[in-house]
Write a structure and sequence with these properties.
Blueprint (H helix, E strand, L loop, with lengths): L4 H13 L2 H7 L4 H15 L4 E3 L4 E3 L1 H28 L3 E8 L1 H18 L2 E8 L2 H9 L5 E4 L8 E15 L21 E3 L5 H11 L1 H5 L2 E3 L2 H9 L5 E4 L10 E4 L8 E8 L6 H12 L4 E2 L1
Helix pairs in contact: 1-2, 1-3, 1-4
Length: 297
Amino acid sequence: MDFSLQQLRGFVAVAEEQHFGRAAARLNMTQPPLTRQIQALERSLGVVLFERTGRGTRITAAGQALLDHCRRVLALLDAAPVAARHAAEGRTGTLRLAFTAIGAYAILADVLDLVNRHLPDVSVELTELVSPDQFAALADLEIDMGLVRPPIPDRYQSVLVHSEDLVLAVPADHALARAEDPVGLADVADDYIGYTPEGSRYLHDICAAMIGVDRYAVSQLTSQVPTMLALVRAGLGCALIPRSIMTMGVHGVRYRELAPADAHSVTLHACWSPDSPNPALHRLAAVLTREPRLGVS
């Protein structure tokens, strides 16, 4: 079975006009070539597509069945160049986005909202990875963009998207839970529950510097914030956490502001490889570069 796109367009025109002359005029051609196209299409398919009447043509049952398919095919073909241009411009496609568990509380919803506003026809695939694993996935082009903590390797491009203060999480029955003023780290006599250097190097190093390496080295360490807060709730110590984690609202845990002398902020960055072939990524990166920070607390 062999037929051309020109034959299909001619067939649809005749079916819709119900007249060879009007269909030929619509296609900017004379009637004899159009008639030959339809006859060749009928021979190729082995069916009669039109019955000739005194005033025009009437489509047959076989022609009606073919018409429905032809319209879909031609609509897809007409849309194909636009779809190709949109994909090349990053207006459509898929964006593979990775994030850290802690970063999800701070900024993930804002990033997804940004994608929905600026790239509404781009789908997003989400993956939770710690920052070192995100850098490896970016190198292998397994993800398109990561929401990571510094330091960021020089081979990647990045933009600051979020900054927030650290606060102190204490057990609900702790003496500091009832204090009215911001607390200083010197007021904390308990052990600290901290971040593992393997899973959260950035937060580990900042908290170790704030508290003191000797004190921090003997604390409970975990890479998962829910586990950290569960240990705080159990009375095993206090923890420094990004402010956005307060939205978890864990029963039995209270959050205290730090005194100005001990206050410290942490940052989160959108990071991507300049070698990525994904146009949707580069479109989002341009938006993020133009936009102010998505969140500052």
